[in-house]
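Input sequence (386 aa), recorded before submission:
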Amino acid sequence: MKEAFKKFTGVALAALTFVAAGCSGKDDSVIKIGGVAPLSGQYTEYGLKCKKGIDLAVEEINAAGGVLGKQLKFVCEDDEGVPAKSVNAYKKLTSQDRVRFVIGSLTSGATISITQLAQANKVVQIAPAATAVAVTEAGNYIFRTCYTDPFQGKVGGKFAAVNLGAKRAAILYDISNDYSVGLMENFVAEYESRGGVVVARESYNTGDKDFNAQLTKIKATNPDVVYLPDYYSTVALIAKQLRAQGIDVPMVGADGWDGLVGLYSGEGGDEVLNGYYSNHYASDSTDGAVQQFVRSFEEKYNETPNSFAALGYDSVYLLRDAMLAADSEDAEKVREALEATDGNYVTGHLTFDELHNPVKSAVMIKLVKENGKLATAYEATVDINE
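Predicted structure, token format:
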């Protein structure tokens, strides 16, 4: 009886161990990459495009044999761009799915909400599109694929002063949004350093829908250009009211605008014409890597990839290349290999500075109409050091 009990107990423990292993999310046949992105909510256009870029990269890499003899598996959680939900998504990915690599989130606030957790857990986090300076200040496990707000704010300032030749700029920004404030401050510094004069600086709060009072004040200053550092959904509202007031000067913005074409689904959007924004790549570039990416994306999804798709795509290849360089999927070794990155990607030649921010150039995109539909076109490459 005693031996029978021992035998039963051993079998039971083995079964429990098997079940526990299955519930742990551990699977030695794949390398899991976690994703946190707004797949619903206010910033859906960002999240869905980024995920499509990531999915395409994973599909390509797996078709080519995977990484280190294993297939990649992307597990993505929706955070709706809400920081508290970003934290929940991160905890689910790291505790249940046991990921050691996370791509996300996309907006700065949502991303910053999980950087301290990733650093403490020694989880490699790559932010595809979060441009606030504080993102990578959490520690040496945090990287980003995009440039920072100070950089693109300065790019916008130089473009307005030099490329557009605007002498008088008005600014309308979200005073409660770090992204918007950071862009505004750096636009002003660069624009004024190049001889421009800021004639109006008006603000609003996140969620506001009526901007007519601020625009009335802006119109009275007779600006040559209006800088709108915010996300595409808000910019669309502002642009409509701005044009309705008869303010017909060029508008300039940043990468948060890169959702306007998708918002209008190619229809309408005349109010955002004569608008320009800094971006991470141009889909109509003649660069071979860009052209191949655009072809593959269009074949798979029947749409042109925006910068969020390209940044998500590059984030996966950055991880792939670091794993190959490290000959390991160990997070510490991959982190070290990422620091030594020096290669060509869809969004440009990329190396990392000491804070894990990429060193690369920026382009300015113009909103145009093609065959009656809203579209984008490459306008200029801007180097703020010139």
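Checked by second reader. Residues 2-23 form the longest helix (22 residues).
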